[in-house]
Amino acid sequence: MELVRWEPFEGLNRLHSRISDLFDENLSRARALPSVSAEAWLPPVDILESKDAYLIRAELPGMKKEDFHLEVNDGTLTLTGERKVEAVSEAMQYQRSERVNGKFARSFHLPRTVQQDGIKANYQDGILEIQVPKAEEAKPKQIAITVH
């Protein structure tokens, strides 16, 4: 008689591996198809903070200024736009398309401690930079210490 080591999670590990494989296959296929839902695309952003302001950077490669819109309303900063499908000649056809196109909307709730009327935006090299200045009362203040 031969002793066999019992592995209580062996079946579970194989199931987990198979599920991971299925997700990897389906996600990579979805990214490669031109029929990817445009609603799934949101431009990536970075949000930075200094003592004087917030800085929001949004990646909008290949877009023109006319393709997106920025507005602030009731404490919410909203970036909307649309990246359109590039027209190709009749002699060409897509073999693979991984760039997502379509409409998008990103909203950012602003703290009450910002100056909404001082917001400025600059677009260069596919990056939209939005400067959101803090109100004076929100900035750190130096407190003088007296010695007796």
Explain this structure.
The structure is a single chain. The chain contains 1 helix and 7 strands; from the N terminus they run αβββββββ. The protein is an alpha+beta fold. The chain has a domain at 37-138: Immunoglobulin-like (Sandwich), CATH 2.60.40.790. A hairpin with a 2-residue loop joins strand 3 and strand 4. The radius of gyration is 25 Å and the shape is flat. It starts with 9 loop residues before the first helix and ends in a 15-residue tail after the last strand. The model is unreliable at 29-39 (pLDDT under 50).
Core attributes:
alpha+beta; Immunoglobulin-like; four-stranded antiparallel β-sheet; three-stranded antiparallel β-sheet; 7 strands; flat
Percentage of β-strand residues:
25-35%
Name of the top-level CATH class of the domain at 37-138: Mainly Beta
Strand order of the largest sheet: 1-2-7-6
Structural class: alpha+beta
**Overall shape:** flat
Count of DSSP strands: 7
CATH architecture descriptor text of the domain at 37-138: Sandwich
Put the structure in a nutshell.
The protein has 148 residues and is α+β, with helices and mostly antiparallel strands.
Record the SSE blueprint.
Blueprint: H1 10-32, E1 45-49, E2 53-59, E3 68-73, E4 76-83, E5 102-109, E6 120-124, E7 127-133
Antiparallel strand pairs: 1-2, 2-7, 3-4, 4-5, 6-7
